[in-house]
Amino acid sequence: MNLKKMIFINTILTFLLCFLTHFLYEWLPNPVFSIFFPINESIWEHMKMIYTTILIYSLLELFILKKKQIIYNNFTLTTLSKALFAIPIYLAIYLPIFYNFGENMFVNITLLFITILIVNIIGYFILKLNPINNEKIVSIIFIIVIYIIMGILTYKPPRTDIFFDPMQEKFGINDYLIKD
Length: 180
What we know:
Layout: H1 3-27, H2 31-36, H3 43-67, H4 75-101, H5 105-128, H6 135-155, E1 164-165, E2 170-171, E3 175-176
Antiparallel strand pairs: 1-2, 2-3
């Protein structure tokens, strides 16, 4: 196995893991899970799901890389990049379709798969770069800062479309839309 084959394996397994992480907060509601997993059906909460799923899967990916003795560099930066790039890539594809044609679960799931494939291809190229100094510590700091921001936006979201859950008619975890 080599890094190119890992792109396909990573894409399939990350995609499948998204289905589990989508429901973790619903199954085990608690303040910690609310930061990492979707708490409602808003677009934003699904971006948290993609970000967290990629980070969780990276642990398995690291194990596979080591077990198969595949040569790689910049693993932590690759993981951060894939998780972070997945958000704007998905939104750039999804939002025009959503605003023009509405909600469609098949389209959403297909776009999720395409997004994961794209970020795994990006990750492949980062893994092939020469080692970057301090990539681990800088990436870990960014991962933590992003989760702090996600926590804040879960409990105090702006009142914009991407934070609105149309099924429960609320923003964030506690903020219900007041009907007139």
